[in-house]
């Protein structure tokens, strides 16, 4: 061999080294996982998705403040709550405490959105790594999540579409990036939500909850077993019902709501289970509910007499809400009496630890439930001056209350009263008041419309950094 | 996954090594073929200068056929094979007179050829880490110091000595940690290039220069613990022309440190012994004595009440203390935790060998003893240095091992003692150390406040130490196929294993308030351990060509390196028994604790080309380009290009200057170029997920994005402009002057994001900073006598640096706001960043002094009005902490073996926020001891015109006020040494080759225009040492 060519070997290696360098420089940390590495496997997508749901379970979001905490205080359903919610109760959104909570909600929901967007960005390139229908289901859920999270934001930070659909609201963010997204009007946000929901609905046609395909523990470790914990096909349908109802498309709302109701996939909690203290949140009625690991612990802290910063009702108020109707399961089973000096207080048991080890009933909090569909049907009727009685009776009877037989003199008052009974401690009453744009509500003498209480101000950091238009 | 990673890393790291090996084997081949056996002997020799120092790169050729030539290696050695007998050898080197040597049969080999220099300057060599350059032909701003220089101005560590030698190299004074032997110094070279680490973005000090030890990157700790006696030379590379070859890491300057290369010959043993004495320097403390202290308390109204019952009760407490004082209690607490530290340092060095095979073995032990009782730092280390030459190939290997143990004092921090009241006695009547020194109640029914004795803690089995073991293996291969070309390959490997433990037993005073359920949690133990591994390798080729008046030098190659580190730890609690001090006696893990850990992987590759051209040794050009990629940069910005151009003009070679016969050196030089700094968090540029560890969702543990990635993230880029002048007059007066303007662009800062992106901030390269400065050194040899080896020389230096923020990001504006709204540490001024201002600005509200009528401070608001209210919006720049001028001066002299040298360090016109006055005079908590200035200068009653507010029972909080900004100028006697060298005596009869006895004094005194407490958490020390150096 000619010695001259030996020189070429080192050159060859240097060339080789430099070309493979970019890969070598792409280090993979051990203490955290790179996005690109996580999305190498189906399990990674499942973990990222579970992460988004977990982000939503934070105390500042659905763990407390977006359920019975801040939103409960804003609808004045509690008779007593911790003093650091006093400014919230007076709708002083500029105060440090209320502003902090509003900022947390905004930041928390957008953090979840940003995680969702990163998942959506990665998923299409990896379609081949998914087993069975998982690609469509996970992608569908991600689109549904993005729609759901923006829907929650626009419900809080945007004007009600029936009040001012053209008011600037929130940015509809579809990218994981530092780029700022333009602010959309209420109308635009709703149509973007609709778009994402339709994508989700198409993809979720394969959802076993919809197809009825049987799933066991043996299939993919039972991944598709607990569809109620995910934004499933019917959750998308229910969101569509909510969206149409909010935007005044009552006929479409009815169709969507009926699709959920008539699917017969969801049923009301039984009296036996409520009596036995097994099912407080109504697990079989959840169209979509979160599994909140600390739910019972939070309930011990905030919803029992042993805790601190407690939310409670007094006996009189509770009696007013439920008309002292001892046949109403909710009145009978969902509230506990205080003892000693707290004897006249009533504590919500909805989120307390149930008397069962079955995970199906534990740590669950409903974000979309069956009765809301009936209230959408009733509400659509109400707003078109039709009878609200029939759908409301469905709920009343399921809760052990006798059916209404005489047409109510004030159907709106009836609707609100029934709504409060059903959604107590779930944060929905505030949204109802907002949709109705009521200036006066039970429990406070403030004028909510004059105070612009129905629209949260965009947090300062967002407002300044992105030069947003006023949303209120 | 991980294994695959490691595999790729290994493969890549070995490619270069393998390349080197191939080159080596290729030469081994050629060796066999190209050296046929001849009758004409090979000529082996060594080229040295007048001081017997080797000359590197001297060209040795046969006069009749200059194609037969070689160049000397790093040790000045060469081998030449003439093709005929009785040839004449020609030895040439720039700056030296060319010499001819006639060869003959009986000539004695190896030849020792001494070249005489054309000027005195030329033996100065700039070691860039890749090549050695003669200083005369170099256009960069660099300073070289020999091991001798370093050792003459101090014997603590190389960093301390460098600060006495080079005005641009500054160890920032740490008034809190003083002379703590376990505190690594903070270094700045030509000022600050980055913003302070305000949010933990940097993985270290953003201003830290790059250290290159024997060709490989080393960390600060390694340099701090480096045995000074091993150092052969240190070169500081300051401007772009000098440092651009280090690319993205060189923005803060580069220190190139070379260790000794063993000399050939018979076995020589050198011993170096030091006895060090460290004495605490408490002159800056000015505290009250027992009687004065009680009086301060009385004046402040601590024992006064309007209610007779309470007054009676307070008087009883007052009288009790007064009684103690009368009995003679007046404890000088400052001395309680202190001692005179006695340490020792020993070094043993063995070297020898033949021209082909040389060895050096070094053993050292350094026991650094601090002035706080129990605090020390021990280093035991050794290294083996082997070099082997076979024909045109030289191999060199350095294996180094170091064991370190750092122990912190069980006495806690010094500030715990400076605040104790002198009327408390540390022991009870039986001589036992008290746990509670005293108590105070403001009302008979009130809860007592207890004051605990930190000395009590020292009697317990506390533990606070860390240790590490470091092994470094460096391998070098050099191949010189032709006289003009030299190829060098290097592989370095360093592994560091470290551990730290911190244990407080349950009886420690910090747990006294833990009662009830927490009682059983008393006592805490934290253990951490870590490991880091660095591998780097490079391969370089040097090519030199000289024809006519032209000299060209070209250098090119590539390098690769990988660094991996991780730490883990755990914390436990519940140690109720004072006798146990092992973690397994813990009752439980720390409350809600989980194991701790962190890890970090960094990799980088680079290619480099540099060249220089000189015409007639008059006109000089240096250029360099480096392409550099690192894993810490964003994926879209992996590769960076760094370049430099330097020009120089050796005026002293021009005829019109030569004519004057004054200048032996007169060079003007200028350079421009870019470098980068990348001391930031290694995973900052990546989108990474973390996992929820304590919750699951539908049986899956969820993952969430940890931050918003910036795939465009890159190095901070520094553009340096430098002009300089080197002067030597009549071989006596030496001067260097540099002026520079450096712009750091792409500063890594937080950028505020609209939170609708899901995150509130992210890292961006935004903002820029400008440093302008000048520096100069001068030395003058007043007397010289070669025969008696006597001389006197004086030296001085000065440096000035000023920085200015030229552009700022919104994130920093947000940060300013956050700082203004902070609720802790209110009395210190904050670092705020504003365009056009220096980052070393002191921000404070203009003060009009203390209102004599009310005793409250009056401020001037932004609109000019007078107010009692401190408003952060009124803050102005009250001064800049960078001194107007800093530098050193001193003298060196030697006469017939007696030597003396001294170095003073000075700073002039530095603005200073006197926190001693704020915290120890004005905002004093009178429950504790105070500065005696509270006596004279505090407001007592209306009409008093005083500089300080009234002292009250509850400490006040003085926010940043211009009242405390003072002008500070310091003079420090940083080093003084005297020695006697027995070279004039006949030592041979004692079996010694040389002997030198020295005395050193470091940081002997500090004179300052401002009175502050220096060394609040750990006192400063004066150090004295006696040293003996000898060779057998």
Automatic annotation (TrEMBL), chain A:
InterPro entries: SusD-like_N (IPR033985), TPR-like_helical_dom_sf (IPR011990). Residues 23-205 form the SusD-like N-terminal domain. It comes from Sphingobacterium psychroaquaticum. This is Starch-binding associating with outer membrane. The lineage of its organism: Bacteria, Pseudomonadati, Bacteroidota, Sphingobacteriia, Sphingobacteriales.
Automatic annotation (TrEMBL), chain B:
The keyword Hydrolase does not apply. Its main location: membrane. Keywords: Cell outer membrane, Membrane, Signal, Transmembrane, Transmembrane beta strand, Transport. It comes from the Bacteria. Residues 1-30 form the signal peptide. Residues 135-254 form the TonB-dependent receptor plug domain. It is a multi-pass membrane protein. It is found in: Cell outer membrane. Gene3D superfamilies: Carboxypeptidase-like, regulatory domain, TonB-dependent receptor, plug domain. It holds the Pfam family CarbopepD_reg_2. GO terms for cellular component: cell outer membrane. The keyword Signal applies. Belongs to the TonB-dependent receptor family. This is TonB-linked outer membrane protein, SusC/RagA family. It comes from Sphingobacterium psychroaquaticum. The lineage of its organism: Bacteria, Pseudomonadati, Bacteroidota, Sphingobacteriia, Sphingobacteriales.
């Amino acid at each position: 061999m000619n010695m001259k060519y030996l020189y070429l070997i080192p050159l060859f290696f240097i060339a080789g080294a430099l070309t493979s360098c970019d890969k070598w420089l792409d280090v993979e940390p051990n203490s955290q996982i790179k996005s690109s590495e996580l999305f190498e496997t189906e399990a990674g997508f499942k973990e990222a998705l579970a992460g988004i749901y977990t982000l939503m379970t934070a105390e500042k979001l659905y763990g407390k403040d977006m359920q019975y905490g801040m939103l409960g205080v804003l609808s004045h359903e509690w008779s007593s709550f911790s003093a650091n919610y006093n400014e919230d109760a007076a709708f002083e959104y500029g105060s440090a405490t209320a502003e902090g909570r509003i900022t947390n909600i905004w930041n928390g929901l957008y953090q979840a959105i940003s995680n969702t967007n990163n998942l959506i960005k990665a998923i299409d390139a990896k379609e081949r790594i998914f087993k069975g229908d998982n690609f469509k289901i996970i992608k569908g859920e991600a689109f549904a999540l993005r729609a759901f999270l923006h829907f929650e934001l626009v419900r809080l930070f945007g004007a009600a579409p029936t009040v001012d659909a053209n008011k600037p609201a929130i940015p509809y963010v579809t990218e994981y990036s530092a780029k700022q997204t333009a602010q959309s009007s209420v109308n635009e946000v709703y149509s973007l939500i609709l778009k994402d929901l339709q994508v989700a609905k198409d993809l979720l046609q394969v959802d076993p909850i919809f197809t009825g395909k049987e799933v066991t523990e043996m299939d993919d470790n039972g991944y598709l077993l607990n569809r109620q914990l995910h934004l499933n096909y019917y959750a998308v349908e229910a969101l569509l019902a909510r969206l149409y109802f909010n935007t005044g498309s009552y006929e479409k709302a009815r169709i969507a709501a009926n699709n959920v109701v008539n699917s017969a996939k969801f049923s009301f909690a039984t009296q036996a289970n409520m009596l036995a203290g097994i099912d407080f949140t109504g697990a079989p009625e959840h169209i979509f509910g979160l599994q909140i690991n600390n739910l019972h612990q939070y309930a011990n802290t905030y919803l029992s007499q042993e805790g601190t910063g407690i939310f409670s009702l007094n006996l009189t108020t509770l009696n007013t809400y439920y008309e002292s109707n001892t046949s109403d399961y909710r009145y009978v089973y969902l509230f506990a009496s205080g003892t000693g000096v707290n004897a006249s207080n009533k504590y919500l048991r909805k989120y307390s630890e149930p008397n069962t080890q079955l995970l199906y009933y534990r740590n669950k909090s409903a974000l979309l439930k069956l009765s809301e569909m009936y209230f959408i049907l009733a509400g659509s009727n109400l707003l078109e001056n039709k009878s609200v009685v029939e759908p409301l009776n469905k709920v009343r009877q399921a809760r052990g209350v006798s059916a209404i037989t005489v047409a109510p003199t004030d159907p709106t008052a009836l609707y609100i009263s029934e709504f409060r009974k059903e959604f107590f401690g779930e944060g929905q009453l505030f949204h109802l008041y907002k949709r109705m744009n009521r200036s006066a509500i039970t429990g406070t003498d403030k004028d909510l419309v004059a105070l612009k209480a129905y629209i949260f101000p965009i947090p300062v950091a967002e407002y300044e950094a992105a030069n947003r238009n006023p949303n209120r | 996954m991980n294994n695959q990673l490691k595999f790729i890393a290994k493969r890549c790291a070995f490619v270069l090594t393998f390349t080197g090996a191939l080159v080596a084997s290729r030469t081994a081949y050629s060796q066999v073929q190209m050296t046929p056996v001849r009758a004409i002997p090979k000529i082996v020799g060594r080229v040295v200068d007048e001081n017997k120092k080797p000359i590197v790169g001297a060209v040795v050729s046969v006069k009749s056929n200059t194609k037969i030539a070689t160049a000397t290696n790093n040790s000045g050695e060469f081998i030449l094979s003439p093709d005929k007998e009785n040839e004449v050898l020609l030895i040439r080197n720039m700056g030296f007179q060319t010499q001819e040597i006639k060869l003959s049969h009986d000539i004695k080999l190896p030849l020792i050829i001494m070249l005489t220099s054309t000027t005195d300057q030329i033996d100065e060599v700039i070691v860039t880490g890749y090549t050695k350059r003669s200083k005369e032909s170099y256009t960069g701003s660099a300073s070289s110091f020999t091991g001798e220089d370093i050792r003459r101005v101090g014997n603590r560590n190389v960093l301390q000595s460098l600060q006495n030698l080079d005005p641009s190299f500054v160890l920032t004074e740490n008034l809190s940690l003083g002379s703590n032997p376990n505190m690594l110094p903070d270094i700045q070279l030509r000022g600050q290039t980055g913003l302070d680490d305000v949010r933990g973005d940097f993985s270290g000090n953003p201003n830290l220069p790059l250290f290159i030890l024997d060709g490989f990157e080393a960390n600060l700790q390694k340099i701090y613990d480096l045995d000074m006696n091993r150092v052969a030379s240190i070169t500081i590379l300051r401007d772009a022309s000098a440092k651009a070859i280090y690319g993205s890491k060189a923005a803060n300057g580069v220190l190139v440190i070379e260790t000794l290369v063993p000399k050939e010959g018979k076995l020589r043993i050198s011993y170096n012994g030091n006895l060090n004495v460290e004495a605490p320097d408490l002159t800056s403390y000015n505290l009250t004595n027992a009687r004065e202290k009680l009086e301060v308390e009385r004046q402040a109204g601590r024992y006064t009440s309007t209610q007779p019952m309470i007054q009676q009760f307070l008087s009883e407490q007052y009288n009790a203390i007064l009684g103690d004082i009368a009995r003679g209690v007046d404890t000088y607490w400052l001395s309680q935790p202190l001692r005179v530290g006695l340490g020792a340092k020993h070094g043993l060095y063995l070297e020898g060998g033949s021209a082909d095979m040389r060895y050096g073995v070094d053993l050292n032990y350094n026991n650094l003893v601090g002035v706080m009782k129990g605090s020390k730092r021990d280093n035991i280390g050794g290294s083996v240095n082997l070099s082997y030459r076979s024909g045109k190939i030289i191999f060199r290997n350095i294996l180094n091992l170091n064991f370190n143990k750092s122990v912190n004092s069980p006495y806690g921090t010094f500030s715990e003692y400076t605040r104790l009241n002198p009327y408390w006695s540390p022991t009870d009547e039986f001589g036992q150390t008290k746990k509670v020194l005293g108590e105070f109640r403001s009302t008979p029914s009130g809860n007592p406040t207890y004051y605990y004795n930190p000395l009590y803690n020292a009697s317990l089995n506390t533990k606070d130490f860390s240790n590490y073991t470091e092994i470094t293996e460096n391998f070098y291969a050099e191949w010189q196929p032709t006289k003009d070309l030299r190829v060098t390959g290097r592989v370095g490997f360093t592994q560091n294993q470290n551990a730290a433990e911190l244990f407080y037993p349950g009886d420690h005073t910090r747990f006294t308030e833990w009662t009830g359920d927490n009682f059983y949690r008393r006592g805490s133990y934290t253990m951490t351990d870590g490991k880091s591994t660095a591998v780097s390798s490079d391969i370089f080729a040097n090519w030199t060509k000289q024809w006519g008046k032209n000299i060209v030098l070209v250098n090119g190659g590539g390098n690769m390196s990988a660094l991996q580190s991780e730490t883990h730890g755990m914390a436990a609690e519940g140690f109720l028994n004072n006798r146990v001090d092992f973690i397994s006696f813990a009752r439980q893990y720390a409350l809600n604790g989980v194991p701790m850990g962190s890890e970090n992987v960094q990799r980088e590759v680079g290619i480099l080309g540099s060249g220089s051209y000189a015409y007639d040794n008059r006109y000089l050009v240096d250029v360099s380009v480096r392409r550099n990629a690192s894993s810490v940069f964003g994926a879209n910005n992996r590769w960076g290009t760094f370049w430099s151009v330097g020009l120089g003009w050796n005026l002293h070679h021009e005829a019109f200057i030569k004519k004057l016969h004054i200048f032996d050196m007169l060079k003007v030089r200028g350079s421009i170029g870019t470098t980068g700094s990348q001391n930031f968090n290694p995973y900052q540029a990546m989108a990474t997920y973390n996992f929820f560890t304590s919750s699951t969702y539908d049986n899956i543990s969820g993952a969430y994005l940890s931050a918003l990635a910036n795939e465009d993230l890159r190095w901070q880029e520094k553009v340096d402009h430098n002009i300089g002048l080197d002067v030597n007059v009549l071989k006596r007066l030496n001067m260097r002057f540099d002026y520079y303007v450096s712009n750091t662009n792409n500063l890594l800062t937080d950028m505020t994001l609209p939170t609708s992106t899901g995150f509130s901030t992210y890292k961006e390269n935004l903002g820029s900073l400008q440093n302008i400065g000048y520096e100069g050194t001068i030395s003058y040899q007043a007397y010289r006598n070669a025969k008696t080896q006597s001389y006197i020389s004086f030296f001085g230096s000065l440096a000035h640096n000023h920085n200015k923020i030229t552009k700022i990001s919104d994130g920093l504006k947000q940060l300013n706001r956050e700082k203004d709204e902070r609720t802790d540490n209110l009395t210190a001024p904050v670092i705020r960043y504003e365009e056009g201002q220096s980052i070393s600005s002191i921000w404070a509200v203009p003060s009009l002094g203390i209102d004599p009528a009310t005793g409250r401070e009056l401020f001037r608001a932004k609109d000019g009005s007078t107010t009692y209210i401190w408003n952060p919006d009124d803050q102005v720049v009250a001064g800049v902490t960078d001194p107007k001028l800093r530098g050193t001066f001193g003298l060196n002299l030697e006469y017939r073996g007696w030597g003396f040298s001294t170095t003073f360090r000075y700073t002039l016109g530095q603005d200073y926020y006197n926190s001693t006055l704020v915290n120890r005079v004005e905002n004093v908590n009178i429950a504790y001891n105070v500065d005696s200035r509270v006596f004279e200068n505090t407001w007592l009653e209306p009409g008093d015109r005083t500089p300080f507010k009234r002292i009250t029972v509850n400490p006040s909080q003085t926010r940043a006020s211009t009242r405390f900004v003072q002008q500070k100028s310091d003079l420090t006697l940083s080093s003084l040494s005297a020695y006697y060298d027995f070279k004039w005596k006949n030592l041979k009869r004692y079996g010694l080759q040389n002997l030198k006895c020295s005395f050193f004094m470091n940081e002997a005194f500090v004179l300052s225009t401002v009175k502050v407490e220096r060394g609040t958490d750990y006192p400063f020390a004066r150090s004295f040492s006696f040293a003996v150096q000898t060779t057998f």
